[in-house]
Amino acid sequence: MTLLELFQLLKKHLKLVITLPVVCAIAMGIVSFAAMDNTYTATTSMYILAKTDDSGQMSYNDLSASQMLSNDIATLLDSDSVKSGAANELGLSDLDDYKVSVSSETTTRVITLSVTGTDAKETAEVAKAMASSVSTVAQNVGAAQSINVIDEAKTPEVPSGPKRMLYVAVAFLAGIFIAVAYVVLADMLNTRIRGAEEAEELLGIPVVGRIPAMKGGK
What residues does the Polysaccharide chain length determinant N-terminal domain cover (predicted)? Predict the structure, then answer.
């Protein structure tokens, strides 16, 4: 099938090609606004104060070691010890309802903790509690001298998700794909001869006459 034939086929089924993507987009819009709760992300940044050795020099004093230290603290932030400590501080049984992510720069000992949840105020409180808990755990296990908060987590004022318009756009594009695939597949499975040109191509003989369709005649 050539591109021109595809365009002609889609033009023939233009109603379906337009209607299906619109229906998919509307359905996704209803689902995303009615069934998906807003989520909020609170962020706090921390500086890792490395331990010092007997001479008073920092044990972590080069870029490679700093990155290793940042990775250690990032791992601690995702540990059960830190999460349970933060949960106990807030009077919660666990932090399973919150999504935690940690990022760090490759050349510094600054790490950023992001906590995402459905309640803006509680999300900020969880981020603060985790920053406090990781400092305690890091000192207990000897990973760092201390972890100091640079920017304290603030209550987010606007939702960070879900990305409803993105979902609607993806649903619209999916509707176009499904409509085009259906039209092409239906055309491939349709074995009827729909014109003199197709008859000549299939039979290999020229058409020598046509019988016009009669409407309303006797």
Answer: 2-89
